[in-house]
């Protein structure tokens, strides 16, 4: 994973280009990388990249980063070159003080590398205290120079602070490295193109012996391999320079050719402290950036879900079929009776035995010359016999809790042809003293309303609308 | 004609059949963990059979069928009984009935319900044990006997009355097994028991149904994991979120500050609502009916004092948590210096943590005016400084998740969130509070998190959810 894949992944997760099923299919076809989440994310990103809008934000982002880095690197190189030329400028009157150059190629890099270390340790912070020292500020300034839309896209892209900090740390190291290369170039150029008389000068009371020891310490990485790049005691003594007086000492002039020997030391100091150590820092920051990219990919919003979808089996219990809604009638049934008459031509019970019918009739205080069970365990011949005997007004008890089936509706249709009036009365359980609930009667009313028959009436204990009672009275 | 069993080489199938309005769809809904199954008080709502396969990566382990109820059972039985055949040929007569009446609208429901059975499905005959037994059921049971397929009866209790003893006596004469199942109160244990019974219907079905049972347990774990992940992300995002607003003037006016606060709060509210929706999807409750006020926890807004008093920590608890957390950090310094700090690190840490908690009890987050970058000034609010907020948010989220997870898929009434004042005690122990505070501190700092840290936080939440949901 690199920065580009991070941006691509981030964009893809926002777009959500694949379904759970497709992601799982991806997981099943890439079993070799099953236990490697980063690799899975990387391969998945590559597989879906084509679904992103062109130009890719990752391309825009990386070309912006490349452009900014290149510009800053060139500026740093030129600055390094100019600084080097400035530091090594020799007017022929005063020798070049090596301490300035040493400060630039040893002290400054060591100090900035220390700052970098602190930044690396604080890379997780959203706002690093050192951010103002970094080139990020200038990178943002340069963003303003980009065309409007690109600028908006880049600004809208929210990068993980950890990643942003490591990007800046790495870029800082590159810029510093090129600054140092500029310095080295200036030194080598100066040495080749003119004779530079180096000397050392300080206000501090430092004896040549102490200075020699210090330089030997500074040169510890190369003193064993390139002894000529460590200034000798003699050279140090000869090049000790005091600004008092307007002329160079006789001794310095006598050994003018030796004064140039300092360049080797300065070149090695630049190579080791400003370039080699900086390169190590650059390597470290590259490693840190790569780690940050990996971590950021795993903490990206949606990546955990994506990995789950890739790795976890899809367990499904759902149906793919949609339910077809059946017809229902909410307008209610038009023929309702609220009270029963005292007698009927027959009392019938749908799946209610004759014994139960007798008890029910007593309970409801209704009488009839004929009691008959229909439906239930009856055969159709038995039902037909009851039908043939039916006439006039029929009170038909039904179990309120049992919803009306089409078997019942068929019988009701046949019955209504034979008789003048049928009153369907849903009754509750014995436990509830035959009282049906409103909800149960609603179910019956709903069913009867689907096939309105003017001979069929429904008995409700309390009529829903007074208007319907009037109709009953009129009938 | 081949018997249905001869052609049955696939996965086990179960057809849930019965009288209209006896809770077939509720049972399917509960067993399939699918709240999209249409459940209605009106009989005959189901007119077409619907298949609910339990599949893993597309491989079906078993299949449930929701079927229409019997409408003309007596007529069907009369047709069957006209054919005098020996017992081994009875299923052929049922098949002949299907073939003959496939396009007959009168027998649409019977054909729909018999087809999967004749295709090899085991029969799950559903009755309502809260209503008296009736002889009209016998025609249905007789038809099912004619199919010759393995069968069991499920006694569902739609209401409170209990006639199950009568039912058991009657059903026992027709079915190999009779079990009681309440789809409204189904839990994992009850679900597994029914699957176990279903497995016993046929020897060949034992292995696949047992595999399905294991899979259901895995599915439950998956749902717990996903919920924990969503909840962890909700807290992390809410606590670490930063709202920015460009300032046009030099100084931020009171109105500017109010606007950014409103936007900031709305963003957090939206995060909560989105997570609730995602949690409902995870638990297959995406069809939940909810009232607007319920969404906001009975009108208890995320930032209301009432919410804070129900779900948040008290000032005292918060100070103890802050002090403990500070002391742990300080103790780390003491340890580093091998106690040469005279344990001042721990003491100072506790003091700083406790004081911070005391003063951070009410404040939400400071509104800051920031930056001159590119000549622009910003108003910024966040990350959340209120130390109580993550506990409030997490408490509400856990409460909602537990409610959703424990809700039967057969329920269709309004999703009711009744506030429970003792809920906090059920999930938030002193130890857990200290553990959570470590992560809340990191979230507040705005530092980038390591994937490991978020996973650890998820695990803490998952343990709570497992305890509350599975008991």
List the helices and strands and how they pair.
The complex is a heterodimer of chains A (475) and B (471).
Chain A: H1 3-15, H2 20-29, H3 37-48, H4 57-87, E1 96-97, H5 98-121, H6 136-143, H7 148-156, H8 161-193, E2 198-199, H9 208-218, H10 233-238, H11 250-254, H12 256-259, H13 262-299, H14 303-311, E3 315-316, E4 336-337, E5 346-350, H15 354-364, E6 371-374, H16 380-389, E7 393-399, H17 406-418, E8 421-427, H18 438-450, E9 456-459, H19 466-474
Parallel strand pairs in A: 1-2, 4-9, 5-6, 5-7, 7-8, 8-9
Helix pairs in contact in A: 1-3, 1-4, 1-13, 2-14, 4-8, 5-8, 5-13, 8-13
Chain B: E1 13-18, H1 24-31, E2 50-56, E3 59-66, H2 73-81, H3 90-101, H4 108-118, E4 122-128, H5 137-147, E5 151-156, H6 164-172, E6 177-180, H7 188-199, H8 206-240, E7 243-247, H9 254-282, H10 292-295, H11 305-311, H12 315-336, H13 344-359, E8 367-370, E9 377-381, H14 389-406, H15 423-427, H16 430-445, H17 451-470
Parallel strand pairs in B: 1-3, 1-4, 4-5, 5-6
Antiparallel strand pairs in B: 2-3, 7-9, 8-9
Helix pairs in contact in B: 2-5, 3-4, 7-8, 8-9, 8-14, 8-16, 8-17, 9-14, 11-14, 12-13, 12-16, 14-17, 16-17
């Amino acid at each position: 994973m690199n920065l580009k894949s991070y941006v691509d992944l981030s964009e893809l997760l926002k777009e959500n280009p694949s379904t759970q099923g497709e992601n799982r299919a991806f997981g099943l076809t890439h079993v070799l990388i099953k236990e490697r989440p980063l690799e899975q994310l990387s391969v998945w990103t590559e597989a879906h990249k084509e679904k992103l809008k062109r130009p890719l934000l990752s391309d825009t982002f990386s070309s912006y980063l490349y452009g900014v880095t290149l510009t800053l690197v060139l500026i740093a190189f030129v600055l390094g070159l100019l600084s080097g030329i400035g530091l090594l400028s020799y007017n022929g009157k005063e020798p070049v003080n090596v301490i300035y150059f040493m400060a630039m190629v040893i002290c400054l890099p060591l100090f900035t590398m220390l700052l970098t270390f602190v930044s690396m340790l604080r890379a997780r912070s959203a706002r690093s205290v050192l951010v103002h020292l970094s080139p990020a500020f200038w990178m943002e300034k340069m963003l303003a120079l980009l065309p409007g839309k690109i600028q908006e896209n880049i600004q809208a892209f929210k990068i993980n602070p950890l990643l942003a900090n490591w990007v800046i740390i790495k870029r800082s190291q590159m810029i510093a490295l090129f600054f140092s290369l500029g310095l080295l170039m200036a030194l080598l150029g100066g040495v080749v193109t003119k004779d530079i008389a180096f000397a050392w000068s300080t206000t501090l009371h430092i004896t040549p012996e102490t200075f020699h020891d210090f330089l030997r310490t500074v040169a510890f990485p190369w003193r064993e391999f390139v002894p000529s790049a460590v200034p000798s005691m003699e050279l140090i003594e000869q090049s000790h320079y005091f600004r008092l007086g307007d002329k160079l000492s006789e001794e310095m002039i006598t050994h003018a050719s030796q004064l140039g020997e300092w360049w080797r030391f300065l070149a090695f100091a630049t190579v080791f402290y400003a370039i080699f150590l900086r390169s190590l820092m650059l390597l470290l920051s590259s490693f840190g950036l790569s780690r940050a990219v990996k971590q950021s990919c795993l903490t990206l919003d949606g990546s955990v879900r994506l990995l789950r979808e890739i790795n976890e089996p899809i367990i499904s219990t759902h149906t793919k079929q949609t339910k077809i809604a059946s017809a229902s009638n909410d307008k209610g049934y038009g023929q309702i009776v609220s009270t029963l008459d005292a007698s009927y031509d027959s009392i019938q019970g749908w799946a209610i035995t004759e014994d139960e019918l007798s008890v029910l009739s007593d309970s409801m205080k209704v009488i009839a010359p004929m009691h008959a069970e229909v439906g239930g365990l009856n055969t159709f011949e038995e039902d037909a016999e009851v039908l043939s005997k039916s006439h006039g007004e029929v009170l038909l008890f039904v179990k309120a809790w049992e919803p009306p089936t089409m078997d019942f509706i068929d019988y009701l249709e046949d019955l209504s042809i034979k008789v003048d009036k049928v009153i369907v009365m849903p009754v509750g359980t014995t436990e509830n003293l035959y009282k049906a609930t409103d909800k149960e009667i609603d179910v019956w009313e709903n069913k009867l309303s689907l096939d309105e028959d003017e001979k069929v009436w429904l008995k409700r204990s309390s009529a829903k609308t007074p208007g319907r009672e009037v109709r009953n009275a009129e009938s | 004609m081949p018997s249905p069993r001869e052609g049955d080489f696939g996965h086990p199938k179960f057809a849930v059949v019965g009288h209209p309005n006896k809770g077939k769809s509720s049972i399917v809904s509960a067993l399939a963990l699918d709240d999209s199954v249409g459940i209605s008080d009106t009989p005959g709502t189901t007119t077409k059979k619907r298949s609910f396969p339990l599949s893993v990566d597309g491989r079906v382990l078993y299949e449930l069928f929701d079927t229409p109820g019997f409408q003309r059972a007596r007529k069907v039985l009369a047709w069957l009984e006209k054919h005098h055949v020996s017992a081994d040929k009875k299923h052929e007569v049922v098949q002949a009935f299907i073939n003959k009446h496939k396009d007959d609208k009168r027998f649409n429901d019977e054909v729909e319900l018999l087809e999967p059975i004749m295709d090899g499905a085991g029969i799950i005959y559903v009755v309502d044990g809260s209503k008296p037994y009736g002889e009209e059921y016998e025609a249905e049971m007789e038809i099912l006997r004619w199919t010759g397929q393995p069968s069991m009866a499920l006694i569902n209790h739609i209401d409170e009355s209990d006639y199950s003893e009568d039912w058991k006596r009657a059903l026992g004469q027709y079915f190999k097994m009779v079990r009681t199942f309440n789809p409204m109160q189904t839990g994992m244990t009850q679900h597994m028991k029914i699957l176990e019974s279903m497995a016993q219907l046929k020897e060949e079905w034992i292995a696949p149904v047992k595999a399905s049972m294991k899979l259901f347990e895995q599915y439950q774990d998956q749902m717990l994991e996903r919920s924990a992940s969503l909840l962890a992300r909700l807290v992390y995002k809410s606590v670490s979120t930063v709202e920015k607003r460009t300032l046009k003037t030099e100084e931020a006016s009171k109105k500017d500050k109010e606007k950014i606060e409103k936007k900031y709060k709305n963003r957090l509210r939206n995060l909560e609502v989105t997570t609730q929706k995602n949690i409902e999807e995870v638990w297959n409750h995406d069809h939940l009916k909810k009232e607007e006020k319920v969404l906001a926890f009975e009108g208890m807004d995320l930032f209301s004092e009432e919410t804070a008093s129900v779900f948040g920590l008290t000032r005292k608890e918060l100070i103890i948590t802050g002090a403990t957390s500070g002391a742990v950090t300080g103790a780390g310094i003491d340890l580093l210096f091998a106690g040469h700090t005279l344990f001042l690190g721990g003491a100072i840490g506790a003091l700083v943590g406790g004081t911070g908690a005391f003063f951070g009890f009410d404040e939400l987050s400071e509104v800051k005016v920031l930056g001159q970058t590119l000549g622009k000034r910003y108003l910024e609010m966040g990350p959340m400084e209120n130390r109580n907020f993550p506990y409030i948010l997490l408490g509400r989220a856990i409460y909602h998740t537990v409610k959703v997870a424990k809700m039967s898929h057969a329920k269709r009434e309004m999703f009711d969130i009744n506030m429970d004042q003792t809920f906090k005690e059920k999930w938030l122990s002193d130890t857990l509070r200290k553990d959570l505070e470590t992560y809340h501190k990191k979230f507040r700092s705005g530092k980038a998190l390591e994937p490991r840290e978020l996973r650890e936080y998820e695990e803490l939440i998952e343990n709570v959810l497992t305890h509350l949901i599975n008991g």
